[in-house]
Design a protein that fits this description.
- A hairpin with a 7-residue loop joins β2 (65-70) and β3.
- 24% of the residues lie in helices and 20% in strands.
- It is globular.
- Strands 1-15-13-7-9-11-12-4-14 form a 9-stranded mixed beta sheet, with helices on both faces. It has a two-stranded antiparallel ribbon with strand order 2-3. It has a two-stranded antiparallel sheet with strand order 5-6.
- It is α/β, with parallel strands linked by helices.
- The chain has 2 domains: 3-49 and 95-293, Glucose Oxidase, domain 1, CATH 3.50.30; 51-91, no CATH class.
- It is built from 9 helices and 15 strands.
Length: 294
């Protein structure tokens, strides 16, 4: 398999100009936002951000640091300090398009060696997403569509699985949408025999092609790429091909169980997705608390 050819096939380099740093968020036009807001019916609002965890664990080797600044003997107010390492397997976060590279190449043809140093990124940082995301969200419950509580951690999710999930709920991913996929990982982790943290079901390369063909603006889910990668020499295919090639807005580790419950209660799997990152100059990503509005 020639990864360079696949990267070129999926590349959005120059599609929105040589200086573009927003990537697939460009699919979300003002008309798309207006159409999405028209989906609000019941007014139900659901958070799909996970709780920030201050306790270290197998999936949380860099826990959130949180402590209070409090004068116990003369209390007039309380302040606190919060330190978050957003990337990893425990924090719901939005990746900057410059977070991961393909053979040293960033989104839109930039070279990481020229754009990144210890002080941050000069191109492709999370600042480019400062206006946030407001668009139609589509929930693809792959586990339920396949009739299981959760996918095997070794499973690769392909286009047929995504389309089975579309059919299951009677929805279809369209240009500018946020696609949120459920593998049932959280159910598996809460059971008596939890899976290894580093072994996870996830998208295969054909599924990444599917996202590109559908012009998906945001991909998120409890499954990113299959881990460990089934592709020798390409450790993080969705990150490398999606971020560096497509400029894909990648939402890691939202709470898909909360979303599943809401969709079941509402009887539909489309909604408004709203989220915005912190405005961190040069940042590689940001913790977020996405909201789904029905």
């Amino acid at each position: 398999m020639n990864y360079r050819e696949i990267f070129a096939e999926l590349s959005n380099r120059g599609r929105w100009g040589e200086e573009d740093q927003r990537g697939t968020l460009n699919y979300i036009t003002p008309a798309k936002v207006k159409d999405a807001l028209a989906l609000v019916r019941s007014g139900r609002v659901v958070s799909i951000g996970r709780d920030l965890d201050t306790v270290s664990g197998p999936s949380n080797p860099r826990p959130v640091v949180h402590y209070l600044l409090y004068a116990a003997h003369h209390p007039e107010a309380t302040m606190d300090f919060v330190g978050i390492a957003p990337h990893g397997l425990s924090v719901t976060h939005l990746d900057a398009v410059g977070h991961v590279y393909f053979e040293g190449e960033m989104y839109n043809g930039r070279q990481a060696a020229e754009e990144v140093d210890r002080y941050g990124m000069r191109f492709g940082s999370i600042e480019a997403m400062a206006e946030g995301v407001v668009t139609r969200g589509v929930f693809l419950d792959v586990a339920s569509a396949l009739g299981v509580d959760y996918l095997d951690p070794n499973a690769c999710i392909g286009p047929k699985d995504l389309e089975a999930a579309e059919e299951y709920w009677g929805v279809e991913a369209e240009a500018g949408d946020a696609v949120l996929v459920r593998s049932g990982r959280m159910v598996h982790e809460s059971g008596d025999d939890p899976p290894e943290p580093g072994r996870r079901a996830g998208l295969d390369i054909d599924a990444i092609r599917w996202l590109h063909r559908r012009e998906v603006a945001v991909y998120g889910g409890d499954c990113i790429e299959r881990m460990p990668s089934p592709y020798p020499g390409l450790e993080l295919p969705l990150h490398s091909l999606g971020l560096a090639g497509m400029g894909l807005a990648l939402l890691d580790w939202p709470d898909t169980e909360a979303l599943r419950e809401a969709c079941s209660a509402e009887g539909r799997a489309e909604f408004v997705l709203m989220m915005a990152p912190l405005r961190l100059r040069g940042g590689t990503g940001s913790a977020v608390n996405p909201l789904c509005i029905f």
